[in-house]
Write a structure and sequence with these properties.
alpha+beta; about 210 residues; about 20% strand; 6-stranded mixed sheet; Nuclear Transport Factor 2, Chain: A; 4 helices
């Protein structure tokens, strides 16, 4: 015969349940306490602090070379050029030039001739050309001058800034083969440079005929 199963009263069953619950709670407390001790190992906080303190320093920015600003070139200043003369002023200058030449040709001495000659005069002749300094050109004319000198033509060129003058009464000494001698006049500044708009009319070419 088997032993009959022990029978527990409700009071005994309740106490057993209570003891089991207490044992489970105790085990859980032990487990939780062990995990906490593992997480809070000694020295972990100090290690983190040292890691933060020994962080790599930030790299300083490499200085960039200064950017050179292009300097604009200086603006060239132009000397203002006087406006060209109108036709009336130009015609008056031509008339004044003819009067000066007529005054020089009034006598064989050719007084004031040097004032209407450029520094170097070109001589154009059938035998060839040459360059005459002012004093030599004046002497060349006086050697061939006479008391019958006169202007037969004096007019401004239509397309070029010059005057064509034709004269008569010269002695036919070589290279002249007749009594006629031509002059070309252009406008020059006091410095000796050509000034087609505002210079004085000066003889710069002899044309022997």
């Amino acid at each position: 015969m088997r032993d009959p199963q022990p029978k527990f009263t409700p009071q005994v069953t309740g106490r057993l349940r209570f003891l089991v619950v207490l044992g489970v709670i105790a085990v859980l407390d032990l487990l939780l306490a062990g995990c906490g001790s593992l997480d809070e190992r000694p020295g972990s906080a100090a290690t983190a602090a040292r890691s933060a303190a020994t962080a790599l320093p930030a790299r300083a920015a490499t200085p960039q070379p200064p950017v050179r600003t292009a300097t604009p070139p200086p603006v060239a200043t132009r000397t203002p050029t006087p406006p060209p003369q109108d036709d009336s002023e130009l015609e008056q200058s031509v008339a004044d030039s003819r009067a000066r030449l007529e005054k020089v040709l009034r006598s064989a001495a050719l007084g004031g001739l040097e004032d209407i000659l450029v520094e170097t005069v070109a001589l154009a002749a059938p035998s060839g050309g040459e360059q005459l300094p002012r004093a030599t050109a004046a002497r060349w004319l006086r050697q061939r001058a006479s008391a019958q000198l006169r202007i037969v033509q004096f007019e401004r060129h239509q397309h070029q800034p010059l005057i064509i003058a034709s004269t008569q009464g010269w002695r036919a000494l070589a290279p002249l083969s007749s009594s006629q001698l031509g002059f070309t006049l252009r406008r020059y500044a006091p410095s000796g440079a050509e000034d087609p708009d505002h210079g004085d009319w000066m003889i710069d070419v002899f044309e022997a005929e």
